[in-house]
Specification:
Strand order of the largest sheet: 2-1-4-3
Distance between the termini: 23 Å
Shape: elongated
Number of strands: 4
Radius of gyration: 27 Å
Strand content: under 5%
Helix content: 40-55%
Amino acid sequence: MPLDGDQGKHAVDDSLLVELNVARSSANALLTAERMAQGSAVDDVLTARSDAILHIDPTFSLEIAFFRWLAGAGGPQVLQGRVLDALPRSKGIHSAKQVASKIEQINASPLYGFVSREGQTSVNIAGEFVTALANLRMPTLKAAEGHDFLLLVKERLCWLVNSQPTAGASDAPVLNGAAALTAMFQVQVDKTKGSEEVTLGDLQVVHAFHWLLNADQVGKLQQMVSGIYKTSTGAGPAGATVVHKRKTTVATDATAKKAAATAATMSLFSNKK
């Protein structure tokens, strides 16, 4: 039981930490800064020299187990979790470009470089999905088929299309996903009924998020696009459209900035204090 006052203060004898620190210093000495940044290189060294290091300090097995996990299945799992955290998961006004920027920062992190190329693949594909939508292009969602993580990413992409009330209609609900896209598409359908011109630019967001439409809507969209090409109307200005005091838009307001890569640490295994 801890004691009050000075009697309750304890210190570890430095001599008890000598072997622990020697083991960690030895492991660091076996790795160059470049190899420390690569999970496969760290795993190779720990595999080849683990017996010698564990002879100095058996508790080093904890570090070995952690870094082997991180270099194997663990690293990609952590990266995927960070990507999912960057994606919206509820109603609101969300920016595809802001999410794309966050994923770029994840891909510039030391952990991204630490995992294998295979471990990076699913995160790269998720980033390509978001980047495509940020630029109002249709993502290649076929890559998500049969992949649990990418299917979760696909589910959350729907929150990136928003229906935002216009000024004077603050009590109107914010729509996301299929409801927002349907509202946007209906604007263009109504324009054709009134003999108004619909341009390719007017349909750009709808086309990018087309998988949220039902089969009838997709058929109608194809007819409209085909008609525009046939009449050579040309692309009009892309952006928000307004109907019934509501504007529907995909939020792409933030400028994506690539985060500078963090310098590799010069010591993976910190000494005990």
